[in-house]
Design goal:
Layout (H helix, E strand, L loop, with lengths): L2 H13 L2 H8 L4 H28 L6 H14 L21 H4 L1 H24 L2 H22 L3
Helix pairs in contact: 1-2, 3-4, 4-6, 6-7
Bound molecules: heme C (HEC).
Heme C binds next to helix 3, helix 6 and helix 7.
Amino acid sequence: MNLLQKTLAIAIAATGFAVVTNVMADEKSPAEAAIDYRQGAFTMIKHHFGPMGAMVKGEMEFNAAEFAKNADAVAALSKFPANGFIAGSYEGETEAKPEIELNADDFKKKMETFQVEAAALAEVAKGGDIAAIKPQFGKVGESCKACHKEYKKD
Ligand code: HEC
Protein backbone atom coordinates (compact mmCIF):
# COMPACT_ATOMS: atom_id res chain seq x y z
CA MET A 1 0.00 0.00 0.00
CA ASN A 2 1.25 3.46 -0.81
CA LEU A 3 0.47 6.48 1.28
CA LEU A 4 -2.63 7.40 -0.73
CA GLN A 5 -4.06 3.90 -0.42
CA LYS A 6 -3.35 3.89 3.31
CA THR A 7 -5.08 7.23 3.67
CA LEU A 8 -8.05 5.93 1.71
CA ALA A 9 -8.15 2.75 3.80
CA ILE A 10 -8.26 4.84 6.93
CA ALA A 11 -10.95 7.02 5.38
CA ILE A 12 -13.01 3.93 4.56
CA ALA A 13 -12.55 2.50 8.03
CA ALA A 14 -13.52 5.79 9.55
CA THR A 15 -16.50 6.65 7.37
CA GLY A 16 -17.49 3.49 5.54
CA PHE A 17 -17.85 5.32 2.24
CA ALA A 18 -18.77 2.60 -0.27
CA VAL A 19 -17.85 4.95 -3.10
CA VAL A 20 -14.21 4.99 -2.08
CA THR A 21 -14.15 1.17 -1.88
CA ASN A 22 -15.42 0.98 -5.45
CA VAL A 23 -12.72 3.30 -6.71
CA MET A 24 -10.06 1.12 -5.16
CA ALA A 25 -11.53 -2.15 -6.47
CA ASP A 26 -11.61 -0.63 -9.95
CA GLU A 27 -7.93 0.13 -10.01
CA LYS A 28 -6.35 -1.08 -13.26
CA SER A 29 -2.81 -1.41 -14.50
CA PRO A 30 -1.75 1.21 -17.08
CA ALA A 31 -1.91 -1.50 -19.79
CA GLU A 32 -5.43 -2.55 -18.82
CA ALA A 33 -6.55 1.07 -18.72
CA ALA A 34 -5.01 1.70 -22.16
CA ILE A 35 -6.83 -1.34 -23.61
CA ASP A 36 -10.14 -0.11 -22.16
CA TYR A 37 -9.45 3.35 -23.54
CA ARG A 38 -8.77 2.32 -27.13
CA GLN A 39 -11.61 -0.24 -27.19
CA GLY A 40 -13.90 2.48 -25.85
CA ALA A 41 -12.77 4.89 -28.55
CA PHE A 42 -13.34 2.29 -31.29
CA THR A 43 -16.76 1.46 -29.85
CA MET A 44 -17.72 5.12 -30.17
CA ILE A 45 -16.31 5.26 -33.69
CA LYS A 46 -18.36 2.20 -34.66
CA HIS A 47 -21.49 3.80 -33.18
CA HIS A 48 -21.14 6.73 -35.60
CA PHE A 49 -19.70 4.78 -38.51
CA GLY A 50 -22.47 2.16 -38.66
CA PRO A 51 -25.38 4.47 -39.56
CA MET A 52 -23.30 6.09 -42.32
CA GLY A 53 -22.62 2.65 -43.78
CA ALA A 54 -26.32 1.80 -43.69
CA MET A 55 -27.16 5.06 -45.51
CA VAL A 56 -24.47 4.53 -48.14
CA LYS A 57 -25.77 1.00 -48.77
CA GLY A 58 -29.37 2.23 -48.95
CA GLU A 59 -30.41 0.18 -45.91
CA MET A 60 -31.33 3.40 -44.14
CA GLU A 61 -32.83 6.50 -45.72
CA PHE A 62 -30.16 9.09 -46.49
CA ASN A 63 -30.36 12.06 -44.16
CA ALA A 64 -27.70 14.64 -44.99
CA ALA A 65 -27.74 16.35 -41.58
CA GLU A 66 -27.47 13.05 -39.68
CA PHE A 67 -24.75 11.84 -41.99
CA ALA A 68 -22.73 15.03 -41.53
CA LYS A 69 -23.07 14.79 -37.76
CA ASN A 70 -21.77 11.22 -37.76
CA ALA A 71 -18.94 12.09 -40.14
CA ASP A 72 -17.90 14.94 -37.83
CA ALA A 73 -17.96 12.61 -34.84
CA VAL A 74 -15.77 9.99 -36.56
CA ALA A 75 -13.30 12.67 -37.68
CA ALA A 76 -13.01 13.96 -34.10
CA LEU A 77 -12.87 10.48 -32.54
CA SER A 78 -10.21 9.31 -35.02
CA LYS A 79 -7.68 11.31 -33.00
CA PHE A 80 -8.19 9.24 -29.83
CA PRO A 81 -7.39 5.53 -30.32
CA ALA A 82 -3.66 6.21 -30.86
CA ASN A 83 -3.37 7.32 -27.20
CA GLY A 84 -4.36 3.82 -26.07
CA PHE A 85 -1.63 1.91 -27.90
CA ILE A 86 1.08 1.97 -25.24
CA ALA A 87 4.03 -0.35 -24.62
CA GLY A 88 3.11 -3.54 -22.78
CA SER A 89 -0.59 -3.43 -23.75
CA TYR A 90 -0.55 -6.21 -26.37
CA GLU A 91 -1.50 -9.15 -24.17
CA GLY A 92 -4.50 -9.92 -22.00
CA GLU A 93 -8.05 -8.84 -22.87
CA THR A 94 -7.17 -7.39 -26.23
CA GLU A 95 -7.48 -8.13 -29.93
CA ALA A 96 -4.50 -5.94 -30.76
CA LYS A 97 -1.57 -7.88 -32.20
CA PRO A 98 1.94 -7.47 -30.76
CA GLU A 99 3.08 -6.60 -34.31
CA ILE A 100 1.83 -3.07 -33.59
CA GLU A 101 4.91 -2.53 -31.44
CA LEU A 102 7.28 -4.15 -33.94
CA ASN A 103 5.90 -2.21 -36.93
CA ALA A 104 5.22 1.02 -35.06
CA ASP A 105 5.91 3.27 -38.08
CA ASP A 106 3.54 1.36 -40.35
CA PHE A 107 0.85 1.29 -37.64
CA LYS A 108 1.20 5.04 -37.16
CA LYS A 109 0.92 5.58 -40.91
CA LYS A 110 -2.28 3.52 -41.06
CA MET A 111 -3.72 5.52 -38.15
CA GLU A 112 -2.86 8.78 -39.92
CA THR A 113 -4.46 7.58 -43.17
CA PHE A 114 -7.65 6.88 -41.20
CA GLN A 115 -7.53 10.37 -39.66
CA VAL A 116 -6.93 12.09 -43.01
CA GLU A 117 -9.72 10.16 -44.79
CA ALA A 118 -12.14 10.70 -41.89
CA ALA A 119 -11.46 14.45 -41.97
CA ALA A 120 -12.01 14.47 -45.74
CA LEU A 121 -15.32 12.63 -45.29
CA ALA A 122 -16.51 15.21 -42.73
CA GLU A 123 -15.69 17.91 -45.29
CA VAL A 124 -17.48 16.19 -48.19
CA ALA A 125 -20.46 15.37 -45.97
CA LYS A 126 -21.12 19.09 -45.44
CA GLY A 127 -22.12 19.28 -49.11
CA GLY A 128 -24.86 16.68 -48.55
CA ASP A 129 -24.30 15.08 -51.98
CA ILE A 130 -24.54 11.31 -51.60
CA ALA A 131 -22.80 10.73 -54.93
CA ALA A 132 -19.73 12.59 -53.69
CA ILE A 133 -19.98 11.11 -50.20
CA LYS A 134 -20.03 7.46 -51.28
CA PRO A 135 -16.47 7.13 -52.62
CA GLN A 136 -15.01 9.04 -49.67
CA PHE A 137 -16.93 6.87 -47.22
CA GLY A 138 -15.39 3.91 -49.04
CA LYS A 139 -11.90 5.30 -48.41
CA VAL A 140 -12.54 5.58 -44.68
CA GLY A 141 -13.85 2.01 -44.62
CA GLU A 142 -10.75 0.82 -46.44
CA SER A 143 -8.54 2.56 -43.87
CA CYS A 144 -10.26 0.60 -41.06
CA LYS A 145 -9.89 -2.66 -42.94
CA ALA A 146 -6.26 -2.09 -43.89
CA CYS A 147 -5.32 -1.73 -40.24
CA HIS A 148 -7.54 -4.51 -38.87
CA LYS A 149 -6.15 -6.93 -41.46
CA GLU A 150 -2.61 -6.47 -40.16
CA TYR A 151 -3.04 -5.55 -36.53
CA LYS A 152 -6.34 -6.84 -35.13
CA LYS A 153 -7.06 -10.47 -34.25
CA ASP A 154 -10.38 -11.73 -35.66
C1 HEC B 1 -4.44 2.01 -37.34
C2 HEC B 1 -5.23 0.87 -36.96
C3 HEC B 1 -6.72 0.89 -36.90
C4 HEC B 1 -7.61 1.66 -37.62
C5 HEC B 1 -7.32 2.71 -38.65
C6 HEC B 1 -8.93 1.26 -37.18
N1 HEC B 1 -8.84 0.28 -36.23
FE1 HEC B 1 -10.38 -0.58 -35.25
N2 HEC B 1 -9.09 -1.62 -34.09
C7 HEC B 1 -7.73 -1.65 -34.25
C8 HEC B 1 -7.14 -2.53 -33.25
C9 HEC B 1 -5.67 -2.85 -33.09
C10 HEC B 1 -8.20 -3.02 -32.48
C11 HEC B 1 -8.13 -3.98 -31.28
C12 HEC B 1 -8.09 -3.15 -30.00
C13 HEC B 1 -8.00 -4.00 -28.76
O1 HEC B 1 -8.73 -5.02 -28.65
O2 HEC B 1 -7.21 -3.64 -27.87
C14 HEC B 1 -9.42 -2.42 -33.04
C15 HEC B 1 -10.69 -2.66 -32.54
C16 HEC B 1 -11.85 -2.18 -33.11
C17 HEC B 1 -13.19 -2.49 -32.63
C18 HEC B 1 -13.53 -3.38 -31.43
C19 HEC B 1 -13.53 -2.56 -30.14
C20 HEC B 1 -13.79 -3.41 -28.91
O3 HEC B 1 -14.73 -3.10 -28.17
O4 HEC B 1 -13.06 -4.37 -28.68
C21 HEC B 1 -14.07 -1.84 -33.46
C22 HEC B 1 -15.59 -1.86 -33.37
C23 HEC B 1 -13.27 -1.13 -34.44
N3 HEC B 1 -11.93 -1.35 -34.19
C24 HEC B 1 -13.81 -0.36 -35.46
C25 HEC B 1 -13.05 0.41 -36.34
C26 HEC B 1 -13.62 1.23 -37.39
C27 HEC B 1 -15.10 1.32 -37.71
C28 HEC B 1 -12.58 1.84 -38.00
C29 HEC B 1 -12.60 2.83 -39.13
C30 HEC B 1 -13.67 3.78 -39.19
C31 HEC B 1 -11.36 1.39 -37.33
N4 HEC B 1 -11.68 0.51 -36.35
C32 HEC B 1 -10.09 1.81 -37.69
C33 HEC B 1 -7.00 -0.96 -35.18
C34 HEC B 1 -7.51 0.01 -36.04
